[in-house]
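To the wet lab folks,

You asked to see what we're planning to order before we commit. Fair enough. Below is the target structure as tokens, and below that is the sequence we designed to fit it. If anything looks off to you, flag it before the synthesis order goes out.
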């Protein structure tokens, strides 16, 4: 019984901390002209070590595929990303930054990571 109570207390602490970080992340994204989900998508593409796809972004960040799709269409209109059919499955598309997109992501994400270091 005591272990269960301790577990529940730890779980509540985790959720409280997660909510606080999520709120700060959303505020930071908004202050920099992005939604929290747009920032997650930008980060996922930038940090991807292999082919980046809508499905991988959706699964990694638990963001609905339709939301990821709308963000990617917006990024594409802004000239930040290009979507190309995958070599192995022409129905799916690989997401790559344009030079403009790579520079934008580098600027935004370095700013985000710098602000994160200031919290530590």
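Sequence we intend to order:
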């Amino acid at each position: 019984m005591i272990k269960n109570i301790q577990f529940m207390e730890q779980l509540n602490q985790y959720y409280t901390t997660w909510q606080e970080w999520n709120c700060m992340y959303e505020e930071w994204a908004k202050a920099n002209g992005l939604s929290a989900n747009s920032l997650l998508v930008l980060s996922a593409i930038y940090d991807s070590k292999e082919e980046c796809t809508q499905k991988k972004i959706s699964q990694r960040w638990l963001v609905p595929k339709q939301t990821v799709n709308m963000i990617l269409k917006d990024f594409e209109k802004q000239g930040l990303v290009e979507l190309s059919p995958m070599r192995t499955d022409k129905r799916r598309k690989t997401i790559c930054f344009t030079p403009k997109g790579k520079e934008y992501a580098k600027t935004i994400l370095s700013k985000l990571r710098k602000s994160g270091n200031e919290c530590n």
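Structural context that might help your review: Residues 24 and 36 are 10 Å apart (CA to CA). The chain has one domain: 35-119.

Thanks,
Computational group
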